[in-house]
TrEMBL record:
Keyword field: Transcription, Transcription regulation
Region (Disordered): 320-344
Molecular function GO labels: DNA-binding transcription factor activity
Matching InterPro entries: CBASS_pafABC_assoc_protein (IPR051534), DeoR_HTH (IPR001034), HTH_11 (IPR013196), PafC-like (IPR028349), WCX_dom (IPR057727), WH-like_DNA-bd_sf (IPR036388), WH_DNA-bd_sf (IPR036390), WYL_dom (IPR026881)
Keyword Metal-binding on entry: no
Composition skew (Pro residues), residue ranges: 332-344
Species this protein is from: Streptomyces paromomycinus (Streptomyces rimosus subsp. paromomycinus)
Protein name: Transcriptional regulator
Source lineage: Bacteria, Bacillati, Actinomycetota, Actinomycetes, Kitasatosporales
Length: 344
């Protein structure tokens, strides 16, 4: 454990330059006294490391000192080769750079670790896209990427969900986040955190004004706060429904985020589920399960589904068979088992 910690200190100093002892202690989860003992050990091993006290002090290496030691363990090497396909690197235009970096890492690995790392890259694949999500619009991240790394403000023309006309915002970006295959810009607008889906950005302009972030707030902090807001948003409607057991797995995959708790499959024909929806009209999404699902409560949810079903029935009331002119066969009014589930 100590050798790993010494190597971590060495690599952090190479990357960051002068680092306060308290910060090293926090990152490595040890005491400051332990950090100073580790510095003495590195110095005794011939590493030109020194400590400066005072307000702007810290621990640093002598200028020009570098080491090519990677210090990677077998598991660490394998972890580097478990990478997303057609994901974040492709969207950022870094596919070529990623391949080049992995080749360099492979060359630097100790010989015993190379076969396991290469085999991992051929046997493990991470695909960030979700099933049944449909085609995603092309996303141009170049301008957002430029603003994030140049620490400049952004002027956005942004189209919100359900709106046709974009709005104009001036924001202070923290960074970009790829969540389940969807890119988001995390930024402050009027000193408050806000998420912007990259595929809804109609136009973006990098301003000359330096970014104005909140003191002490990093991308991880801003993202965590916004993520919790989305995931803990209070539901406006609780719905009780029953789902055919043969369709339960498909139902959970599509509507799983709305479930109050995982459904308990007792082995009967029907399984009762509890859903938390944002608004009454959201219950209409349950019509996609046809007679495989029945809403039991509340009455207003059943009434909303009845209105939606009536409007669809009226729309297709006069549809006839194209060849015979005969009207289509009526749909059974009682629930039926639609048969074996099809894989997405």
């Amino acid at each position: 454990m100590k050798s790993d910690r010494l190597l971590s200190i060495l690599l952090l100093l190479q990357t960051r330059g002068r680092v306060p002892a308290a910060e090293l202690a926090t990152r490595l989860e040890v005491s400051v006294r332990t950090i100073y003992r580790d510095v003495e050990s590195l110095s005794a091993a011939g590493v030109p490391v020194y400590a400066e006290r005072g307000r702007h002090g810290g621990i640093a290496l002598l200028p020009g000192f570098r080491t090519d030691v990677t210090g990677l363990t077998g598991d660490e090497a394998r972890a580097l080769f478990v990478l997303a396909a057609e994901g974040a690197h492709h969207a950022l235009g870094l596919d070529g750079a990623l391949g080049s970096a992995l080749r360099k890492v492979m060359a630097a690995l100790p010989a015993p670790h190379r076969p396991a790392a290469e085999l991992t890259s051929r046997r493990i694949l991470v695909d960030p896209g979700r099933w049944l999500s449909g085609p995603r619009p092309a996303v141009d991240l170049d301008t957002l990427h430029t603003a994030v790394f140049a620490d400049r403000r952004l002027r956005l023309r942004y189209r919100h969900s359900g709106e046709t006309d974009p709005r104009t915002y001036t924001v202070d970006p923290y960074g970009l986040v790829c969540k389940a295959g969807t890119w988001y810009l995390v930024a402050d607008r009027r000193r408050r955190g806000q998420l912007f889906r990259a595929d809804r950005v109609v136009a973006a302009t990098v301003l000359d004004t330096p970014v104005r972030r909140r003191d002490g707030v990093e991308l991880t902090d801003a993202w965590e706060a916004l993520r919790q807001q989305v995931e803990t948003r209070p539901a406006g409607l609780r719905v009780t429904a029953r789902v055919l057991r043969s369709r339960l797995d498909l139902f959970v995959r599509i509507i799983g985020t709305a479930l109050v708790e995982p459904p308990e499959d007792t082995g009967g024909t029907w399984v009762t589920v509890e859903l938390a929806l944002q608004e009454l009209r959201a219950v209409r999404q349950l019509l996609q399960f046809s007679t495989s699902l029945e809403v039991l409560e509340p009455p207003e949810a059943r009434a909303e589904l009845a209105r939606a079903a009536a409007s669809v029935t009226a729309l297709y009331a006069d549809v006839r068979q194209p060849d015979t002119g005969r009207t289509a066969a009526p749909v059974p009014s009682h629930p039926v088992d639609p048969g074996p589930e099809q894989a997405p």
